[in-house]
Amino acid sequence: MTGTSLKFTPRQIPAYLLALLLVVSLLAPVLPLQDPLAMDTAARFAGPSAQHLFGQDEFGRDILVRLVFALRNSLIVAFAAAILAGVIGTALGVLAGYSRGLTEMLAMRFIDIVLCFPPLLLAMLAVTLYGPGPVTLIPVLAIVFVPSFTRVAHASVLSVRSQDYVEAVRSMGASNARVMFSTILPNIAGPLIVQFSFTVAVTVVLESGLSFLGLGVLPPAPSLGLMIGTGRATLAQAPMLLVWPCAALTAMILILNAFCDDLRDRLDPKSSKIRGQ
Amino acid sequence: MSISETATRPGLSISDLNISFRNKDGWTSVVRNLGFDIAPGETVAIVGESGSGKSVTALSVLGLLPQQSTRIEGSIRLGDRQLLSLSPKDLKALRGNEIAMIFQEPMTSLNPTMCIGEQIAESIIAHRGISKAEAKVEAIRLMEKVHIPSAARRYGEYPHQFSGGMRQRVMIAIALACKPALLIADEPTTALDVTIQAQVLNLIKELQEEEGMAVLFITHDMGVVAEVADRMVVMYRGDVVEEGTTTEIFANARHPYTKALLSAAPQLGSMSGSSNPQPFAIYDINTGLAAEASVLKSTVDTSEILLDVKDLSVRFPVQQTIFGKVTARVHAVENVSLTLARGETLAIVGESGSGKSTTGKLITGLLHPTAGKVEICGKPMRIDTRQSLSRSVQMIFQDPFASLNPRLTVGRAITEPLRIHKLASEKEQDEIAASLLTRVGLSPEIAKRYPHEFSGGQRQRICVARTLALKPSVIIADEAVSALDVSVKAQVVNLLLELQQEMQLGFIFISHDMAVVERISNRVAVMYLGEIVEIGPRAAIFSNPVHPYTRRLIEAVPVPDPSRRRDRHKIADSEIRSPVRPGDYVPPARTYREVSSGHLVQDAGPEWAA
To answer: For the packed helices A240-267 and A189-212, what is the interaxial angle rounded to 10 degrees?
Structure first.
């Protein structure tokens, strides 16, 4: 695992692409890019040029720059929401699965209640009450995805807790907290990481959906959902205005899933043998 | 079946069999130049340890090895048919009809959603094409034949309602549905309790006599071989090292490996006359010479009591009404009292459901008793003292792989107890891990590797090293050597004895294996349905068992000596009873009488009157 060679393999492509994506989105404000909000009404719907590689939109703004900032917004919202949901959900699930009894009953029934609300509906409700914008969006999306983490963590804990090594650590005198977080947690990390990737991808879609409806990121700030929404209106004049954000969204989700799939294999100490490493 | 019919049944003949598996570096040979014959009505045992190629041979007879990645050369003939050249379709017809197989784990071989009777009937219909009603009659007849009590009533029951031994009987009934010419039994009794094992072996012999089939028996247990086999083939890493009649090989083994295997097979009664534990003689597999087995001095110091258990009981509710009233309970441990002195080994023996493992968990504080108390070195084990007392009492589990966290390297696993109790710095931990690994006979360099890279015996050594990290005074070994190959088992037992000599450890050795228990223990406690029925010095228990259950247990142990084969008609088809009792059950008051000094026997209740 630690001794993985630095030799380039096709399996590492998603990791490099994701790294590129993250670096570009994080550094977007300091990169020598144009202002994503700067309008140039004279060049509305202008095609690709040396200055504007992907062309310009209905207000003459640079599409490539806007895409970069849109990805940045999407990723910030998605990662923040997924991390928040992951931490809360996993803690709840591990606690429920390990302590059983009343704690388990309360935690799991609470999760079932949250699960009853369709995610989009819950998000729309919160946005209607508290107003749109990332500050509302992140906690709402986190709540929506807590149940999936809790369920995955709970089910994995149930299968791991009966293993002899858990019993062995307890017989060595380990405290409950130690058993839960340093013995059980690393052994259920695989499914949780996959759940995390899934959550990030779904959050990106949900965030885009809300922005598309005008309930997420507010214009003029760039967002993939917003760009798709406005691109739809001008489909006849400039189809590429719709194609670019759609392609960016698809590519990002594919990269995320491929990366996390690979990560799960790497995190499993047994799989290095299977791969013939 | 008449004798004339028996004579026409085909036998199995294997010659020059070579099997290789493909892996990424090419072909690995797993069985080389294997050849033997089984006549109708005869039993041949293939004996060997893990990786000897014995199960692969069985699968090749059935044509069940994956075709893409296996190369089979040579000849396997059933009667006058060459099995290796049969088409997959013909092979399919052959399986079940003429060759049947029973496996080690009867639970996983049965469909949990189908009732037992229908599973037997299904196989009859598939092979004989008779009507459903006829098949049901036939299935009940078969169930009676394999001695399933009240067969007609149990026809509609499901696999989970059957005990392990009864499930294996069902598997045998399915295997026999079409009167096969050859029965392959792959470790059929390894997962069963001794008394049940004796019954199942008995049943296989009986059915073989009736049906005149050839039996290929695969096992690692020399006791079982001596019990059932007419002839035996000893395999070692894919090669046949010795072949001959069972009596001949047991009396006069020629190959060093066979000698090593035979000497490692624990033999009940080999210890009469000595009162201390005694290590196994370890034979060198290449030379066949025995290393000098040292005679151990007594380590027992009765002035220091390490462990004192008084009137311990634990009950678990298994069924409740919606108002919370318990209607059924498992009386897992009932009024158990025992003590352990410094340097002493107390063995707890019993079969499944006897409460022996639960007793071990109660002592380590993994479970909390319903009543009674456990004192370790004079301090009571309670919820609040469990963490500090765990430094004095450590546990070794049955499955060494499952008891090692797959995410920790060996070194980290061994030093985990030190980190839990915050006893050593990172650097000290590395040194301790290295010295403990050396102590249990492993190289300190392996500390950086993961548990899955090691064999079962090595993993169990790692587990032993881990229990030593805290320098405990009591070690509870729960079936610690039961899952290991015989020769490895002998080595681990010897290691435990050595450590006891050196550190004056007290062992609670929980096991169902009477022969190993005889070697390792100073005293023995026999448990049955949660109660201790007999406890006393080892020699007294083995030479003068008083309680009817102890006698039954000792009689059921297969003896690795074909000349002492048991009279089969003596074995009763009794099941191990379940410790589940109704909610209002009050356990009877038990009285114990002292047979000789320290040898206590429970007065047998009315259920033992016979």
So the answer is: 170
